[in-house]
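Example complex used in Figure S2.
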Amino acid sequence: MESMAKKFDVIVIGAGIMGSCTAYQLAKRGKRVLLLEQFDFLHHRGSSHGESRTIRCTYPEDYYSEMVLESAKLWEEAKAEIGYRVYFKSRHLDTGVPSDKSLQAVIASCQSNSIPHRVLDREQVIHEFSGVFEIPENWIGLATDLGGVLKPTKAVSMFQTLAIKNGAVLKDYMEVNEIKRDNERGGIRVCTKNGSKFWGEKCVVTVGAWMSKLVKTVGNRALPIKPLHTSICYWRIKDGYQDNFSLEKGFPSFSSYGEPYIYGTPSLEFPGLLKIAVHGGYPCDPDKRTWAPALLGNEVTSWIKEKFADRIESTEPVLTQSCMYSMTPDGDFLIDFLGGEEFGKDVVIAGGFSGHGFNMGPAIGRILAEMVMNGEAKGVELKYFKLDRFEENPRGNVKDYEDQVNSVKSKL
Ligand SMILES: Cc1cc2nc3c(=O)[nH]c(=O)nc-3n(C[C@H](O)[C@H](O)[C@H](O)COP(=O)(O)OP(=O)(O)OC[C@H]3O[C@@H](n4cnc5c(N)ncnc54)[C@H](O)[C@@H]3O)c2cc1C
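Predicted assembly (412 residues):
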């Protein structure tokens, strides 16, 4: 009886957004699923907690735009199933100089994916976005309808609830320290530090910033996924302007292409405050963090002064929240089978979401569910996410990690 209770079709390890979406997708397909988490559910020590993540479909790479478009539908489906909202819609505004290569690629991607968009000059941006977004004369704005704020902790909780409603079993305080093929019983045996053992026909590993550590332990394979400690910053809106920056009044989620890459969301979760953050962070050990706010240079202060005139207190943020990125060297995700003789296609790993994975969580959950069940996933070019690109560098675009961390990434 004991062992039957511990036998599953699929064991998913790591209950952030990716693991929770995967567990939900598998349970919805009638699979017996176990989701294991090392800490408390909805903890704040990984990447999927807090009050806001941007959703936008403006990516330089078509394959990300497609995943966001699919996810936008899946966010809506989840809302219909659960009965409350985790996705607050707004328009999205990308800004930068017209010659910026990433911005040009984003505009081309909108065209090739038939994403309704408009390229705006300075006056149009000021006119259309509450009169407070003042890009420089020589900049352009790219306006799209698909943007807004996702509520991360609430969203993870929603997918966990939906997974349970569809029959999944969820267990927290289960730190996995062994994943092995069980030649006697068949399938995959998963062991935890506290001595529990579970068996699954298959396994999906979505452990965020712990991915390199765990895969080294269980698969003796070195992954170049680097945890970065970073902070989301909130800035005080000056009196009289609070409405202009609010979601209700049409202020957009936004990205600013340049050095550094800056992004933010409309005022929503903390009235009177605006989230403006810099893409990047400092290398860290996920188990030994300092928790000090990671403030990335002074550029953000001058950026705020220039774009929002005197309407935001730009001396320092009034609130910061710590979080971790899991960076790959090229900023692309890692989604693949762990492979080798031991695991083959029975263990799927997904990580390295490099600061831009949250909004695609629902589509990634669907992809991981199909991969682990069928050995392949429909409607996605998995070649961009393969493990061997780090080993063989077939795309020839893997940049040095430190360069990459300090450079502007357009994929956030
Ligand atoms: C500051 C910041 C801003 C961001 N902004 C955006 C944005 O605007 N838009 C966007 O789309 N994305 C954004 N992202 C990225 C997005 O949040 C992440 O890509 C996403 O949350 C990654 O989810 P995950 O499930 O892979 O990792 P996590 O949420 O970290 O989940 C992994 C889980 O695995 C657990 N785990 C680890 N090891 C073990 C083990 N051995 N046994 C059991 N459990 C284990 C961990 O405790 C954790 O709960 C941002 C990230 C940060 C940090």
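The chain has two domains: 7-47+153-223+330-406, 91-149+226-327. The radius of gyration is 21 Å.
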